[in-house]
């Protein structure tokens, strides 16, 4: 990891390495082992669409309608955990209150445009999963804004949105090219193979709220009175 991106702190000691290895051998780490897919895509800050980042999602499917993702800023061993995304089917999304739906983004355009990829896995292998994912919605909270140089997770979490399609002129083409070069792929070529992927019959207008309303969402921190006593049973 480059010196500019290393969080403040002492280097790992040999004793710490041994302790970590020992714990790894003795513990099951069951939830982590359920992560069975690595997805690379892009996201932009809801309050500032000019800030766009490459993201790496390590996905656990809890059932056919719900996935949870640990999101990193790279797929390198030194990748930093920068947030979490929850993904739900359109069937579940339609049951949410309208105010909650505003916090979610659709995946159909993101996938069909080739922005969403499964690195080093052939398209024909992931095709069935993509057919499911085009009909999903995601809510992504970024907890560590490494793109602005933060060496630590500073401030409140930020809501992230999908940049949608490359041809909308919204996506940072430089970011896409850098990823294409890294994985030796062509996002444009992938896009042509996904033209016939099914989409939801109806994209809920409450999702991707910024596209229709030009409004994003930002979280602030405020002082509140603490509840100092637990209620009696």
Automatic annotation (TrEMBL):
UniProt organism field: Nicotiana attenuata
Family annotation (InterPro entries): OBAP-like
What superkingdom heads the lineage?
Eukaryota
The Swiss-Prot or TrEMBL record describes its family as follows: Belongs to the OBAP family.
| Record-given protein name | Oil body-associated protein 2a
């Amino acid at each position: 990891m480059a010196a500019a991106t290393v969080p403040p702190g002492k280097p790992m000691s040999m004793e710490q390495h041994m302790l970590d290895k020992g714990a790894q051998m003795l513990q099951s780490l069951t939830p982590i082992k359920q992560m069975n897919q690595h997805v690379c895509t892009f996201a932009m800050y809801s309050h500032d669409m000019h800030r766009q980042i490459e993201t790496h999602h390590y996905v656990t499917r809890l059932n056919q309608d719900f996935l949870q993702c640990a999101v990193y800023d790279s797929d390198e061993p030194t990748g930093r955990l920068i947030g979490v995304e929850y993904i739900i089917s359109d069937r579940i999304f339609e049951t949410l209150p309208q105010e909650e739906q505003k916090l979610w983004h659709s995946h159909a355009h993101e996938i069909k445009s080739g922005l969403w990829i499964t690195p080093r896995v052939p398209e024909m292998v992931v095709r069935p999963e993509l057919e499911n994912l085009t009909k999903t919605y995601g809510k992504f909270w970024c907890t560590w804004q490494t793109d602005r140089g933060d060496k630590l997770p500073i401030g409140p979490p930020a809501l992230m949105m999908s940049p949608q399609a490359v041809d909308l002129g919204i996506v940072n083409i430089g970011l896409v090219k850098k990823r294409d070069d890294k994985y030796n792929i062509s996002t444009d070529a992938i896009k042509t193979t996904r033209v016939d992927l099914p989409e939801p019959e109806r994209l809920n207008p409450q999702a991707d709220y910024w596209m229709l309303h030009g409004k994003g969402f930002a979280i602030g921190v405020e002082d509140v009175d603490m509840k100092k006593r637990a209620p009696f049973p």
